[in-house]
Amino acid sequence: WNGQGWEQMPGLLSCVSVGAANQIWGCNKEGQIWYWTGQGWGSCDGACVDISVGEDGTVWCVTETGDIFWRAGPNGQWAKVEGKLKTVSCLNAQTVIGTNPAGEIYAWS
Questions:
Q1: Considering the entire predicted model, what is its pTM?
Q2: DSSP state of 48
C-alpha cells in the first residue's frame, strides 16, 4: 500500500509480517525466511511456516513441526522456546500470542 493503492514488491511469500516500515519479514512455501533490507530481500537462516515481527524488530516463527523460535532481528540468533504452536503474532519481545493446532490461544510470559 503506497497511500493510494497497492504496489507490487519483488519476490514470492506465503506469509508476511510488518512490525514497522523498516521491519518486514516473511517466509515462502518452501519455508525459507526473508527480511526486507530496504533495497530487496535478504535471506535468513532457519525455516518456518508462520512468522511475525514486532515493532522492536523481534522476530518469532513457528516451524512445520510446531517448534517455536525467536530472534532479535536479522543479526540475532534463533533461540528455541518451549511449547508447540501453529501460528504466532507479536507486538514486541514481551507481547506474543499464538495458537496451537487445536485452536487454543496462548500468550508468552
A1: 0.93
A2: -
